[in-house]
């Protein structure tokens, strides 16, 4: 089974739309939304729930006020100002570092698992689909991405592909999205900042030694920058496997909860089909 992760330097490049569309075009695959900070693939995929679980990405302190003798040592040692003058711990501010538990003279402070998100696996018309929801203000998105991928592998049957909607940027959640995959497809828009962001995500893929390919979305909005991106890729020996034109009908389709494939928008379906064909050829050549 080949795992392909679609990433971008920032959100809003059309990465999720591409993954959801390929969900309709590619046979025998699973899907994962690893953009856990801003998941949206589920908006385009209906399904029945196969699995749901709370996720704990860390510890939080709590103080037993019946035991506490108000000595103030915990407040002095907490670098995150998580403990109020009334000795109540802010779960938003607490980083679970345990420093307060060490200095408390009466063992009034306990650390316990904190629910920081939920993970799900759904059966959809396009195949099994894993995703997650990170609680507002919670961190640990990298570990949550790993959990999403682990959940999906638990429900694996005999699929040929996993299409992963990865996190944007170059943070730890992206690294967790990329690790162990067979290919990265970096989706970029033809703007100067998009070109710069693409350079960063390609360097990240290179660092983790995952073969990378590029898709330029809305390439015709700025042909000059698109050409620069193609030249950059040529210099890096990276194939541009897809160039998708700007199509206003895509926005209308998405507003109606439809992928461009469901809305039968041929101007973008054909480039997406070409992208997939190019990718499968390159994946096959990687295996040789
Ligand atoms: S565990 Fe660390 S961050 Fe949390 S309240 Fe204690 S000292 Fe502060
Ligand atoms: S260190 Fe322990 S006893 Fe002192 S104020 Fe904090 S919780 Fe209370």
Report on this model:
- With 288 residues, the chain is an alpha/beta fold.
- It has two domains: 208 residues, P-loop containing nucleotide triphosphate hydrolases (Rossmann fold); 58 residues, Alpha-Beta Plaits, CATH 3.30.70.20.
- Helices cover 35% and strands 27% of the residues.
- It is built from nine helices and nine strands.
- The protein has a nine-stranded mixed beta sheet, sandwiched between helices.
- Strand 4 and strand 5 form a beta hairpin.
- Helix 1 packs across helix 9 and helix 4 packs parallel to helix 5.
- It is elongated, with a radius of gyration of 22 Å.
- The mean pLDDT is 92.
Question: Topology, pairings included?
Answer:
Elements: E1 2-8, H1 15-25, E2 29-33, E3 47-63, H2 73-77, H3 99-103, E4 109-124, E5 127-134, H4 141-154, E6 161-168, H5 172-178, E7 183-188, H6 192-207, E8 212-217, H7 223-236, E9 240-244, H8 248-255, H9 266-287
Parallel strand pairs: 1-6, 1-7, 2-5, 2-6, 7-8, 8-9
Antiparallel strand pairs: 3-4, 4-5
Helix pairs in contact: 1-9, 4-5
The protein binds iron/sulfur cluster (2 copies).
Keywords:
288 residues; alpha/beta; Rossmann fold; Alpha-Beta Plaits; 9 helices; elongated; binds iron/sulfur cluster
| Residue-averaged pLDDT | 92
Silhouette = elongated
Residue runs with pLDDT of under 50 for 5 or more positions? none
- Given helix and strand content, the structural type is alpha/beta
CATH superfamily of the largest domain: P-loop containing nucleotide triphosphate hydrolases
Terminus-to-terminus distance: 15 Å
């Amino acid at each position: 089974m080949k795992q392909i992760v679609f990433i971008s330097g920032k959100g809003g490049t059309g990465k999720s739309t591409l993954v959801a569309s390929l969900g309709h075009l590619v046979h025998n695959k699973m899907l994962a939304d690893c953009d856990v900070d801003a998941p949206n693939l589920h908006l385009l995929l209906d399904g029945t729930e196969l699995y749901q679980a709370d996720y704990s990405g860390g510890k939080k302190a709590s103080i037993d006020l019946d035991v506490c003798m108000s000595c103030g040592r915990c407040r002095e040692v907490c670098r995150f100002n998580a403990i109020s003058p009334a000795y109540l711990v802010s779960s938003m501010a607490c980083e679970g570092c345990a420093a307060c538990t060490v200095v408390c003279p009466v063992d009034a402070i306990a650390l316990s698992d904190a629910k920081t998100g939920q993970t799900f696996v759904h059966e959809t018309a396009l195949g099994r689909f894993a995703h997650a929801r990170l609680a507002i203000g919670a961190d640990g998105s990298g570990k949550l991405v790993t959990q999403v991928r682990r959940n999906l592998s638990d429900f694996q049957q005999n699929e040929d592909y996993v299409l992963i909607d990865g996190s944007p940027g170059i943070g730890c959640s992206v690294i967790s999205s990329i690790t162990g995959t067979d290919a990265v497809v970096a989706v970029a828009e033809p703007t100067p900042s998009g070109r710069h962001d693409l350079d960063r995500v390609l360097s990240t893929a290179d660092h983790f030694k995952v073969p990378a390919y590029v898709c330029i979305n809305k390439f015709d909005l700025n042909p000059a920058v698109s050409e620069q991106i193609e030249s950059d890729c040529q210099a890096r020996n990276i194939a541009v496997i897809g160039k998708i034109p700007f199509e206003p009908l895509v926005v209308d389709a998405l507003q109606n909860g439809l992928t461009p494939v469901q809305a039968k928008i041929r101007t973008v379906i054909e480039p997406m089909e070409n992208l997939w064909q190019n990718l499968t050829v390159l994946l096959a050549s990687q295996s040789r």
